[in-house]
Design brief:
One of its GO terms (molecular function) is DNA binding. By secondary structure, this protein is an alpha+beta fold. It has three domains: about 170 residues, Beta-Lactamase, CATH 3.30.450.80; about 110 residues, Beta-Lactamase (2-Layer Sandwich); about 70 residues, Winged helix-like DNA-binding domain superfamily/Winged helix DNA-binding domain (Arc Repressor Mutant, subunit A), CATH 1.10.10.10. Helix content is about 45%, strand content about 15%. A hairpin with an 8-residue loop joins strand 9 and strand 10. Helix 1 packs parallel to helix 7 and helix 3 packs antiparallel against helix 6. It is globular. The C terminus is likely disordered.
Length: about 375
């Protein structure tokens, strides 16, 4: 099986988890097999209580699963999870560095290392943040019995990050009002969040009651000639791009269509795009259905202007960091120094950013960030 077919199979399995959390072990097993892992976990934590709203494991050794569950809370790096870069996989050595000079010693003296890693011959792990919210963080962890160094492995895991985040985010929206039926259409009917099912040309094929209300309000979305449109052009272009990419090739959609801000505010209504082409047979929708667009209420996500730019234009984590530096007024040379990379690397990153955002230089990119910055309310305004 070629790499694209393997990726397509993994991504399809990840999206199946939107409708059923019980599907995660299947998706994780495919990921595990792809990178020659021993055990793979996905978890979403409340950082205030350390409780998990999602915790799934895939491993062929039931005893290893029991052992991991027994010692999972013994991880000494929990307080560092929010410092992991999203969609950037790395090994345990990163956590050692974040912890400090004695990070490795603390790890090797811990119960998880002694009882799980040593017992089952686990030499390292590939860890990645897939979700970061003010009080929630999601990670995927792949325990391996070798020292990972092949960049292709890290590239594969990183590529899957946005797809996992999309599945987890939309699953969370569905969870509170999930019906017993496994048919996505039945779940969407009962959902209080607005959901639109659209064709690849953005023609609206279905809108639940909450979505119909959004169309009547015309505050963030509207229908023009039967097609879904956004009040803000940036948002409309971002959603159209994500739907088109997902309909053409789920692998390439990447981070496009996740947390897309539908307005300019610190707590905007945001939209998430779920490709449907592979799921038409079981979703209860006609064959033209290209995507489901879920609209979360204002206040669900807190976004800075830089985060809004990243979501609207599907920037990579590295590109998002560069936009942050540009917004602070740093020159190209200063950005290179801040990242510890060559000037040519930053030049290439800026070129990719300009292409995606349709800006031409750092000044116009700064203006774009300002345009997307939340308006500041004066003290005398109510």
């Amino acid at each position: 099986m070629d790499m694209d077919r393997q990726l397509s199979e993994m991504i399809g399995a990840i999206y199946d988890c939107v409708a059923s959390e019980a599907s995660w072990p299947t998706a994780l097993s495919l990921i595990n097999r792809q990178v020659n892992g021993f055990l793979t976990t996905i978890a979403v934590f409340d950082t205030r209580t350390r409780s998990a709203s999602l915790a799934q494991i895939a491993c062929d050794d039931p005893d290893a699963i029991r052992t991991l569950m027994q010692h999972a809370k013994d991880v000494p790096f929990f307080h560092l999870l929010h410092r992991m870069e999203i969609d950037e996989p790395d090994t345990l050595e990163r956590m050692f560095q974040l912890y400090g000079a004695d990070g490795e010693a603390v790890w090797k003296n811990g119960d998880l290392y002694r009882n799980f890693h040593t017992r089952y011959g686990v030499q390292n792990s590939i860890d990645m943040a897939i979700l970061k919210r003010p009080f929630r963080v999601g990670t995927i962890n792949i325990s391996v019995r070798y020292q990972p160094s092949d960049p292709r492995i890290f590239n594969t895991v990183g590529l899957l990050g946005p797809h996992i985040r999309r599945a987890v985010t939309i699953h969370d929206m569905l969870e509170m009002e999930r019906a017993e039926s496994a048919i996505l259409r039945d779940v969407i009917h009962a959902l209080e969040h607005a959901v639109f099912i659209v064709a690849d040309d953005m023609a609206i094929l279905f809108a639940n009651e909450a979505a119909e209300a959004r169309l009547r309000e015309q505050k963030v979305v509207r229908a023009i000639a039967g097609k879904l449109s956004c009040i803000h052009d940036y948002a409309g272009n971002a959603l159209t791009n994500a739907v088109t990419l997902g309909a053409r090739d789920e692998i390439r959609i990447g981070a496009a269509g996740i947390d897309v801000p539908l307005g300019s505010s610190e707590r905007p209504a945001v939209a998430h795009v779920l490709p449907l082409k592979r799921r038409n047979g079981s979703g209860g929708y006609e064959s033209r259905a290209a995507a489901a667009i879920f609209v979360a209420a204002a206040g669900t996500v807190i976004q800075s202007a830089v985060e809004a730019v990243a979501a609207l234009f599907a920037l990579t984590p590295a590109e998002r960091r560069v936009v942050g530096y540009v917004s602070e007024g740093l020159s190209r040379a200063e950005i290179a120094a801040a990242q510890g990379v060559a000037d040519g690397t930053v030049k290439s990153q800026l070129g990719a950013i300009y292409d995606k955002t349709r800006t031409v230089d750092q000044r116009s990119l700064q203006q774009l960030v300002r345009d997307l910055s939340p308006p500041v309310r004066r003290p005398d305004e109510r």
